[in-house]
Each structure stands twice: as structure tokens, then as C-alpha cells.
Amino acid sequence: MITFQFLLTALVVVIAPGTGVIYTLAMGLGRGRGAALFAAAGCTLGILPALLAAILGVAAVLHTSAILFNIVKFAGVAYLLWMAWGAVRQTGALAVKPADGSADPMWRVAWRGLLINVLNPKLSIFFLALLPPFLSGDPTRATIEMASLGAVFMGMTFAVFAIYGLFAGAFRAWLLSSERAMAWLNRSFAAVFAALAGRLALERA
Q: pTM (2 decimals)?
């Protein structure tokens, strides 16, 4: 059931900086407000497979299958490291630089955000742990209640990520005026994504 306790719990989870937040901030700083909104939308849509897995019970299978869990996990690790490397070279999706006409289309910005969450096996297990305590206890309504809670969580995710991204986009003009600041941010994004990849690699089912 959608209660104040659930909304507060979900808000705390969504606000906490994670891979999706960092990616959305990077898009706001590197590409502007429009890209930040597409990034937020992609990250939000990336939640849907994990939510469906939790509702259908697939998350429990993922949790008990070490091989399947590790396949998804290390695919996610490789993807985060690839994005970190692109930031180091200042040529990848996270690169903060002036527009030069070679930027990827917005659908790719959203697609990368989607992949960030799809390739995180912990997300489906997270929903399996987060949602059940807020159910009414009626087995016949469990599916619709989990879907409703998940939809609210996704809506909050998009709203909070969009705020993060729009806030970052507001500083883009100032950032582009300083080559030192751009270089520092590129290295910072690379370091953060490499650290997130390392943390994901250490996760266990």
C-alpha cells in the first residue's frame, strides 16, 4: 500500500547518489538540460525489468543462481568501466566538453541510462526486499500492489533525477568557460564510475 512510510523510504533511496544519479549529472553538465531529462528517463525505464522480475519472482531465481547473477553483474562491471575509460579519453558518453556537432542522439543518452540499471542484478533483489513490507497482506492483491508501488517509485526516480540533471545543466555554461574545470570533472566522472564498477564487482547474490 502507498503510505507515507513508503514514500519517505523511496525518497531516501532515490535521493542517495548512485550510478544513475551520477550519469544524469554528467549528462546535464556535458550535454545540457535536454540530455539530462533523457538520461533521467532512461534510468527510470531501466528500473522496469527489475520491477517485473521482482513481481514475477525471477529475482529470487537470480538471487539463488550464482552463475546467472555473475553474468549480469560482470556485464554491468564491464559497461561501467567502458564508460569510465571514455571519460578519461574525453570522447565517451560522460565527456564534459563544448558541443561540436558530433554528440550522440538523445535516444542513445536514454539507452545508456537504461543499460546502467538493467545490468545491475542487485536492483531486482532490492525490489524483492523493499516492496513486500508495504503490501496489505492480501495474496490476491499482491501483484497489483507491487506494480503500484513500483510505478510510484519510478515516478519519484524520474522526478528526482530530472531535478539533479536540470540543476547540473544550469552550471554548464560556467563549466565550459574553464578548461581546467572540464578536465577535472572528466577525471572525476571516470574515477566515480570505476569505483562503482569495483563496488558492483564485489557484490554477492
A: 0.79
Q: Is residue 45 part of a domain?
A: yes
State whether residue 140 is helix, strand or coil: helix
Phi, psi dihedrals of residue 85, rounded to the nearest 5°: -65, -40
What is the domain extent for residue 27? 19-72+105-172
Compute the C-alpha angle 106/191/63, nearest 5°: 80
pLDDT tens digits for 115-172?
988 887 777 777 877 787 888 777 778 788 888 999 999 999 999 999 999 988 887 7
Cell numbers standing for residue 136: 496489505
What's the distance, Cα to Cα, between the start and end of the chain in Å? 27
On whether residue 180 sits in a domain, the answer given is: no
Q: Return the beta strands (E) in the chain as ranges.
A: none
109: in domain: yes
Cell readout for 132 is 513486500
Which residues, in sequence order, are CB contacts of 191 under 8 Å at separation 6+?
A: 84
* Overall number of domains in the chain: 1
